[in-house]
């Protein structure tokens, strides 16, 4: 009986379906916990499903390559999902027309501080080149950040984790920081959270008010586009 | 539904092709997103000129994008798990990365919030 079970296990672990199924189940479980905990940023479902899956791979000795043979069927959807971001961005264009003066200053400032600030600090503290290229796009939404990281010679999977950690930091520390700085306008709070902490900051902004959330999702989209254009240029200029 | 999935893929493919043809540093899917945004803006302008009824974003496109974006977070997981292949790098550079993430995130929130608040106040007064 035990031998048969282990035979089945050996067979299943080799099947690409295993990585695919495990990913969806881990995410569903993490998402349930996240909802139960009132969508607290620290309970972020991506972070915890990544941690859980990493532990499973380590415990079972399945290599990442084998896991990815199945999980890639989810991964390929990132491209079309990035293109799909055009629809919410199109909806938000009315806000751009009303707020363009503020956005024109606040967004580039936030984008440059987030990316070049992180690169300068990590570089000064001795991080290597691949790490610097991986941390540079950490403030923007994951699909865009991973694309930029790849273009800069970074490690897209490291970027994915850094992006999520940034989102959690921004969502947890951002609102108290903004209150301490006496930034009370919902539009300003939304832009700050969306530009610096992408989707996770945007989810937090929607907890404050719909207006804050709408400005956050707009800022997230524009910051992503802006970073995708500015950062590779800055990278080339800096050599 | 299927035509709209094809539409997203065509825009992505066009973005990749444009990136390769012009050797652009911007990721292909981002160019695809900008292309779709431009297409929607043009369609909106055209519909306003014709005073045409109906939504600028076709309902089928709406459904497909809503489905994709509703579970957007799931799509990051396979790549995120790849961090297991960089654990030693992550451990040896944990301090520079930790400091850089916390400090740059706080500064970016402060910069975005203060500048936007100032612009909003100016416009009101």
From TrEMBL, chain A:
<dbReference type="GO" id="GO:0016787">
    <property type="term" value="F:hydrolase activity"/>
</dbReference>
<dbReference type="InterPro" id="IPR007300">
    <property type="entry name" value="CidB/LrgB"/>
</dbReference>
<feature type="transmembrane region" description="Helical">
    <location>
        <begin position="70"/>
        <end position="90"/>
    </location>
</feature>
<keyword id="KW-0378">Hydrolase</keyword>
<dbReference type="GO" id="GO:0016020">
    <property type="term" value="C:membrane"/>
</dbReference>
<protein>
    <submittedName>
        <fullName>Putative murein hydrolase (TIGR00659 family)</fullName>
    </submittedName>
</protein>
<keyword id="KW-0472">Membrane</keyword>
<feature type="transmembrane region" description="Helical">
    <location>
        <begin position="16"/>
        <end position="34"/>
    </location>
</feature>
<feature type="transmembrane region" description="Helical">
    <location>
        <begin position="102"/>
        <end position="125"/>
    </location>
</feature>
<keyword id="KW-1133">Transmembrane helix</keyword>
<feature type="transmembrane region" description="Helical">
    <location>
        <begin position="46"/>
        <end position="64"/>
    </location>
</feature>
<feature type="transmembrane region" description="Helical">
    <location>
        <begin position="158"/>
        <end position="178"/>
    </location>
</feature>
<dbReference type="Pfam" id="PF04172">
    <property type="entry name" value="LrgB"/>
</dbReference>
<feature type="transmembrane region" description="Helical">
    <location>
        <begin position="218"/>
        <end position="238"/>
    </location>
</feature>
<keyword id="KW-0812">Transmembrane</keyword>
TrEMBL record, chain B:
<dbReference type="InterPro" id="IPR005538">
    <property type="entry name" value="LrgA/CidA"/>
</dbReference>
<feature type="transmembrane region" description="Helical">
    <location>
        <begin position="95"/>
        <end position="117"/>
    </location>
</feature>
<feature type="transmembrane region" description="Helical">
    <location>
        <begin position="67"/>
        <end position="89"/>
    </location>
</feature>
<keyword id="KW-0472">Membrane</keyword>
<dbReference type="GO" id="GO:0005886">
    <property type="term" value="C:plasma membrane"/>
</dbReference>
<keyword id="KW-1133">Transmembrane helix</keyword>
<keyword id="KW-0812">Transmembrane</keyword>
<protein>
    <submittedName>
        <fullName>Holin-like protein</fullName>
    </submittedName>
</protein>
<feature type="transmembrane region" description="Helical">
    <location>
        <begin position="29"/>
        <end position="46"/>
    </location>
</feature>
<dbReference type="Pfam" id="PF03788">
    <property type="entry name" value="LrgA"/>
</dbReference>
<keyword id="KW-1003">Cell membrane</keyword>
């Amino acid at each position: 009986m035990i031998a048969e079970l282990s035979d089945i296990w050996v067979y299943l672990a080799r099947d690409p379906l295993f990585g695919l199924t495990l990913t969806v189940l881990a995410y569903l479980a993490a998402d349930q916990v996240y909802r139960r905990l009132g969508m607290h940023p620290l309970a972020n479902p991506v972070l915890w499903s990544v941690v859980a899956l990493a532990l499973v791979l380590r415990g079972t000795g399945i290599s990442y390559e084998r896991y990815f043979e199945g999980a890639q069927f989810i991964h390929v959807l990132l491209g079309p999902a990035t293109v799909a971001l055009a629809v919410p961005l199109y909806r938000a264009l009315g806000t751009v027309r009303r707020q363009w003066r503020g956005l024109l200053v606040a967004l580039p400032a936030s984008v440059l501080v987030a990316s070049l600030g992180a690169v300068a600090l990590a570089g000064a503290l001795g991080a290597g080149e691949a790490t610097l290229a991986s941390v540079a796009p950490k403030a923007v939404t994951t699909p865009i950040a991973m694309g930029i990281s790849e273009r800069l010679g970074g490690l897209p999977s490291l970027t994915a984790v850094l992006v999520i950690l940034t989102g959690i930091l921004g969502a947890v520390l951002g609102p108290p920081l903004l209150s301490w700085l006496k930034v009370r306008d919902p539009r300003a709070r939304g832009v700050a959270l969306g530009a610096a902490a992408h989707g996770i900051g945007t989810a937090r902004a929607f907890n404050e008010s719909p207006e804050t959330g709408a400005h956050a999702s707009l800022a997230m989209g524009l910051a992503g586009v802006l970073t995708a254009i500015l950062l590779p240029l800055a990278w080339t200029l800096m050599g | 539904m299927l035509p709209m999935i094809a539409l997203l893929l065509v825009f992505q493919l066009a973005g990749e092709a444009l990136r390769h043809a012009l050797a652009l540093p911007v990721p292909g899917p981002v160019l695809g997103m900008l292309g779709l945004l431009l297409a929607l803006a043009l369609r909106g302008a055209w519909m306003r000129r014709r005073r045409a009824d109906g939504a600028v974003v076709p309902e089928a496109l709406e459904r497909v994008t809503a489905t994709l974006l509703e579970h957007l977070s799931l799509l990051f997981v396979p790549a995120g798990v790849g961090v297991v292949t960089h654990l030693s790098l992550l451990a040896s550079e944990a301090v520079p990365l930790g400091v850089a993430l916390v400090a740059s995130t706080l500064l970016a929130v402060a910069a975005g919030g203060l500048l936007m608040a100032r612009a909003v106040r100016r416009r009101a007064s």
